[in-house]
Amino acid sequence: xxxxxxxxxxxxxxxxxxxxxxxxxxxxxxxxxxxxxxxxxxxxxxxxxxxxxxxxxxxxxxxxxxxxxxxxxxxxxxxxxxxxxxxxxxxxxxxxxxxxxxxxxxxxxxxxxxxxxxxxxxxxxxxxxxxxxxxxxxxxxxxxxxxxxxxxxxxxxxxxxxxxxxxxxxxxxxxxxxxxxxxxxxxxxxxxxxxxxxxxxxxxxxxxxxxxxxxxxxxxxxxxxxxxxxxxxxxxxxxxxxxxxxxxxxxxxxxxxxxxxxxxxxxxxxxxxxxxxxxxxxxxxxxxxxxxxxxxxxxxxxxxxxxxxxxxxxxxxxxxxxxxxxxxxxxxxxxxxxxxxxxxxxxxxxxxxxxxxxxxxxxxxxxxxxxxxxxxxxxxxxxxxxxxxxxxxxxxxxxxxxxxxxxxxxxxxxxxxxxxxxxxxxxxxxxxxxxxxxxxxxxxxxx
Length: 447
Prior knowledge:
Shape: elongated
Pfam families: ArsA_ATPase
CATH superfamily of one domain: P-loop containing nucleotide triphosphate hydrolases
Radius of gyration: 32 Å
Distance between the termini: 32 Å
Protein name: Anion-transporting ATPase
CATH topology of one domain: Rossmann fold
Number of helices: 18
GO molecular function, one term: ATP hydrolysis activity
Number of strands: 10
Organism: Streptomyces griseorubiginosus
CATH class of one domain: Alpha Beta
Strand content: 5-15%
Helix content: 40-55%
InterPro entries: ArsA/GET3_ATPase-like, ATPase_ArsA/GET3, P-loop_NTPase
CATH architecture of one domain: 3-Layer(aba) Sandwich
Structural class: alpha/beta
């Protein structure tokens, strides 16, 4: 038994955990007081599909919805019949019902540019946007994508144009990156180096120039060696131009954080029935509770099921082994259509032992009963593998439920194909609303 199994023994049938409460999503998305739904979780668990399916379902139930996604594969746009998504919400066609569905894809750099343009005059904005250090920062600073997702959410909510905003959080390694981004960017903006670089501009006048001449000259040589003279100059120019907007970052981050805590916001933690994904989901549930943010429940994607689960893996393997070890019959003689045995002493009057060796060559006759036995054995082994998979998934769900029995769960079946149109998203939405895994219909995937 592995150390992990020692820590998490499988519950016996007599002590199996009570099932988690079922997450009913229709009342959540129908409630006019629900204005924001945030789909969060680790990367690769189906957040984008979940967000799009919920958005479509809410729209077809009468609400005006915008889905904000951060999806490098741009599969959402294809599913919604839109050639491309960008930083502007675009209406999705062929939505049934009286509601509306709009979709957009976060353009991280463009969102950063919009912040600069909104909080600086034209001359200063141009200086910032053209600054090499800013261009590098806006394109790839760690945490910028998560921060800009929150910034765009704040912008959309302030417009008050949509009944419901569904957010697909960035595909980060950790689900916590979305909540940590404002603090990380704020720490950068409040860091010692930035404070030192902004001090001359804040002092102003002669005092500022005196500080610049004395203090900056002392550190310029050292920083110039570390950063390079041109980069240091770019940073100083950027900081001087951005000085008036630094406070705005912190203010807006705080405002968006409060928006996420407010009534009308609901978090859906999305995971797959795998140990790492559910462990990440458990961390996120605990973080939401610590931050007093409203959790609606857990969406568990790619759950496997079987209508034949009454046949255990152990019984299936035993039956397969029995079939595979049956004594091979002698080769059937098909000559003249008679069912005799080739080399049989009774047939030919020979005293030689019958030939029971396997047939060789493409023209050798095959015993159909033996073929059926081997095919059946193979199917039984496939079934056993399926039962072992179901058992592993059940153990991971049991661990999560034991740790968080209060969290409601909606399960979506593992499906065979990709979502490629609105019909696929509609099917996923139906399964989400049902809150239980169902046998898949071909052509869609909850990925």
